[in-house]
Description:
Elements: H1 10-15, H2 23-48, H3 54-63, H4 65-80, H5 96-116, E1 120-124, H6 129-165, H7 167-182, H8 190-210, H9 214-230, E2 245-249, H10 255-258, H11 268-288, E3 290-292, E4 297-299
Antiparallel strand pairs: 1-2, 3-4
Amino acid sequence: MTSPVLPSGPTGHFLGQAGRTQPVVAAILGVFFIAGGQLLVSVPAQLLGAGSSPTASSVLLLASFIPVWVLLWAWMHVVEHRPLRRIGLDGRRRDVLIGIGIAAGILTVDAVVMAATGQLSFHWAGVSAAGVSGIAAILVLFTIQGSAEEAVVRGFVMQGVGAGWGAWAGLLVQAGIFAVLHGSNPGVTPVALANVAAFGIMLGLLVLWRGDLWAAMGFHAVWNWAQAMVLGYDVSGLGFGSSILTQQTSAGAATSITGGTFGAEGSVITLAALILVIAALGWAWRRSLTVTRGGPRQELGAPPH
């Protein structure tokens, strides 16, 4: 079985830095890194009685992604003998702004449409200066958590599968894994699962289009943080206590629109916005999904002429 043809440009640069781990093994390891890293924190925390409140439990969950980084680094350093930056950390750091912009745009659409249709209302929480400092500090934990998921799922897994089986396979496999990892979260619904899979596709396209993880990392960190600490949503079914704004759900509000206890990620408004973003990113990516071999342009993954 021949390897897929890699294009020049960002996508080829990203996939071309993959290690020697086979695609199936890369997918299994991706799940292990995330689940194993979390267990390294959650098991001792339970034994010590930490995380008794929902907020403390959610904060511990974010902190549990530190070992995820360690496990990923250890595999790449000891087994693959390649530096961590090869999974997409050697690109343009300013791409973070692209991800932040997309996150802010989708959340703005969510909040405006939900409020305009009378599904819920937002109110100033009246948090203290100390509370605002704590809210800002939580951004660090969300950055660790979001970037760890991107490094493992969109970086290690998608890169390994995409280099072995083609970019489309890598894109779909990582989106499926991303959905599975969130499938047992509190308050999950079919709409929420569809959204999580769509987030996986959208973030995967961001990585393939830009050739690095920075835009996806920027999106992931700010999306989660702004939901929880600014707008007062739950994040994938998890609550984080104080926020700058609080929400009041209207009587008779539809869970499919508000997202219910899963947060904005369970809303059909988010799904509609994601479909539009995916279409735009798909168009941008496809423009770079070609390779020239002294003749006609050839799409990635197509057999040589």
